[in-house]
Design goal:
mainly alpha, 4 helices
């Protein structure tokens, strides 16, 4: 795509993002016809570095979650279930 030089661009002409409709302000945005926010969102969606919780399937956002393969709420839930008081469990027959 050919980019017009800054001198050739009309000052009164407005350019908008093809994705969200936001007015484009920089030459890079105008040349690519997409705002930086939408470009980043599209890049993130195409990323292969997405990890999900093995228990609930939610996307893992923190490195500590990714390292363990489980989100914080699921991990807390499992820990609570493991540490249940023996008073609450029925006696063995």
């Amino acid at each position: 795509m050919k980019l017009e030089s800054l001198d050739e661009m009309e000052d009164t002409r407005r350019y908008f993002c093809w994705s969200c409709g936001k007015q484009l302000e920089t030459v890079d945005e105008i040349s690519q016809r997409i705002c930086f926010q939408c470009k980043q969102i599209i890049k993130d969606l195409k990323s292969d570095d997405l990890f999900f919780c093995w228990a609930c399937g939610k996307q893992l956002l923190h490195m500590s979650e990714v390292a363990q393969g489980i989100c914080h709420p699921c991990k807390s839930s499992i820990i609570r279930k493991i540490h249940t008081s023996p008073k609450n469990t029925p006696p063995a027959p």
